Each structure stands twice: as structure tokens, then as C-alpha cells.
């Protein structure tokens, strides 16, 4: 079964850091671009960033550029999101997603909640 | 590139035909996807490249348009279709603000 499972969410203070993980299974992970999308409670979807198959190229949304970093370990079939300098407005469910050939997100994880609060 | 969905919310009945519109602030050719999201669940891909139906998605869903105006149509609403719907421009990856489809 094709599956993505996120972990690492939790409560963090403003200015703090957190690392999210996404474990992939059921497909050839190294063959796909991967991405992160977030959703603040009760609000819409916001693209966070994408990473190329081999990790050599990364792209970020304006609101997280310079604070968040995406990486991957193809040997471990894992995707990561490092969140630094966290703000209250970063509070959201964070989803990892697979990017299909036509650039849409075709497989999604269940999401992990990050809460930024003192 | 900004995406504007209309309406923001919609009430409809089982069996109705429903259309949701997504307008782009500039020409995005056919680089548009549509997703369905139910409360507490991850989004699900419905349509890619504006009109291609994702595998496993019922044929009552269809997408059309190119350039700056796109539509998602549900030909005959089923109870499981009441959800939120989002368009996404797959060059810059920005999303529309969403349309909440509720039961009348």
C-alpha cells in the first residue's frame, strides 16, 4: 500500500525549533519529488515547499523561506521538514505529499499538528 | 499568481449539479489541480492538468478550463461529496481559498 506517515509535531514556544519526519512506503521514494503543505486550524491549504528527487533542488513558499528547510534521505525513504524561528502563525497541521508527473500532489500523509504557543 | 475560488460556500442537495470556479490572476495554461478535503482528513486529488481525472475518482467529477478560468463540476451530488474543495496552481503551487459544499 502506498503510504506516507508524518511524525514529530507538538507544542513549541515562539522562537523555537522542531523537526518533522515523513516515512514513505509502497512506492519508489527516490523517483518522486516530494512536498509539504500546511493548514492552520479552520483555514485553507498553504504550500510550504518541495524537494527534488535527489535533494539537489528545493523551493519554498514566501512565508517560510529562510526559516524552514526541507531535506530527504532516500536510503531511509524519509522526508524531513526543519522548522526554525517558529511563530504563532506557523501553528498548523503539516502534511507531506508525493508529487506526481503532472506536478499535482497525489498521495498525502495524515498530517501532524504543530502548535506554537507560550 | 493568485487563485480566487467562487463561491466560498455553497448549499446544495443530493442529486444536484454543482459547479465551482477558480480564476487565476494570470495565464496558467492547464497547470491546475483540484482537491477534495473532508473534516479531519488529508486532501484528496480529484483532477490534474485542469481536466484529467485522477485514478479511482468517480466520473461524476469533471474539470475544464485553461488560461485564467477553470471549473470543477459534480454532475450529480452524492452524500459523500459534501466537503471542501481547493484548486491549486501547480507551477507556483499556490492554492485557492477553498469552497465549502454543504447540504441544503
Structure report:
The complex is a heterodimer of chains A (118) and B (104). Chain A is mostly beta strands and 118 residues long. Chain A contains no helices and eleven strands. In chain A, the strands form two sheets. In chain A, strands 2, 4, 5, 6, 9, 10 and 11 form a seven-stranded mixed β-sheet that branches. A six-stranded mixed β-sheet of chain B has the order 2-10-9-4-5-6, with no helix packed on it. In chain B, strands 1-3-8-7 form a four-stranded antiparallel β-sheet, with no helix packed on it. Chain B starts with a strand and ends with a strand. The chains are: A mainly beta (118), B mainly beta (104). The A-B interface holds A 35, 37, 44-47, 50, 59, 61, 95, 100, 102-106, 108-111 and B 31, 33, 35, 37, 42-45, 48-49, 52, 54, 86, 88, 90-98.
General shape of chain B: globular
Average pLDDT of chain A: 98
Profile the largest sheet of chain A.
7 strands, mixed
> Gyration radius of chain B, to the nearest Å?
13 Å
The helix content of chain A is under 10%
Number of helices of chain A: 0
Please tally the β strands of chain B and state the result.
10
Count interface residues per chain for the largest interface.
A-B, 20 and 23 residues
Strand content of chain A: over 45%
Tags for this model:
heterodimer, A: mainly beta, 7-stranded mixed β-sheet, 4-stranded antiparallel β-sheet, 0% helix, B: 104 residues, mainly beta, 10 strands, globular
How would you concisely characterize the structure shown here?
Chain A has 118 residues and is mainly beta. Chain A has no helices and eleven strands.
Amino acid at each position: 500500500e502506498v503510504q506516507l506517515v508524518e511524525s514529530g509535531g507538538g507544542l513549541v514556544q515562539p522562537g523555537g525549533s522542531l523537526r518533522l519526519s515523513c516515512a514513505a512506503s509502497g512506492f519508489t521514494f527516490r523517483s518522486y519529488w516530494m512536498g509539504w503543505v500546511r493548514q492552520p486550524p479552520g483555514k485553507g491549504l498553504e504550500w510550504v515547499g518541495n524537494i527534488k528527487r535527489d535533494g539537489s533542488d528545493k523551493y519554498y513558499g514566501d512565508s517560510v523561506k529562510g526559516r524552514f528547510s526541507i531535506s530527504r534521505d532516500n536510503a531511509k525513504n524519509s522526508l524531513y521538514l526543519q522548522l526554525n524561528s517558529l511563530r504563532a502563525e506557523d501553528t498548523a497541521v503539516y502534511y507531506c505529499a508525493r508529487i506526481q508527473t503532472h506536478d499535482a500532489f497525489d498521495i498525502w500523509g495524515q498530517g501532524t499538528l504543530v502548535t506554537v504557543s507560550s | 499568481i493568485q487563485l480566487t475560488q467562487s463561491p466560498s460556500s455553497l448549499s446544495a442537495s443530493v442529486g444536484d449539479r454543482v459547479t465551482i470556479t477558480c480564476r487565476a490572476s494570470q495565464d496558467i495554461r492547464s497547470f491546475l489541480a483540484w482537491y477534495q478535503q473532508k473534516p479531519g482528513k488529508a486532501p484528496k486529488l480529484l483532477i490534474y492538468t485542469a481536466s484529467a481525472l485522477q485514478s479511482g475518482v468517480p466520473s461524476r467529477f469533471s474539470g475544464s478550463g485553461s488560461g485564467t478560468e477553470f471549473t470543477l463540476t459534480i454532475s450529480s451530488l452524492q452524500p459523500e461529496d459534501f466537503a471542501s474543495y481547493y484548486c491549486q496552481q501547480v507551477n507556483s503551487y499556490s492554492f485557492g481559498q477553498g469552497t465549502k459544499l454543504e447540504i441544503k
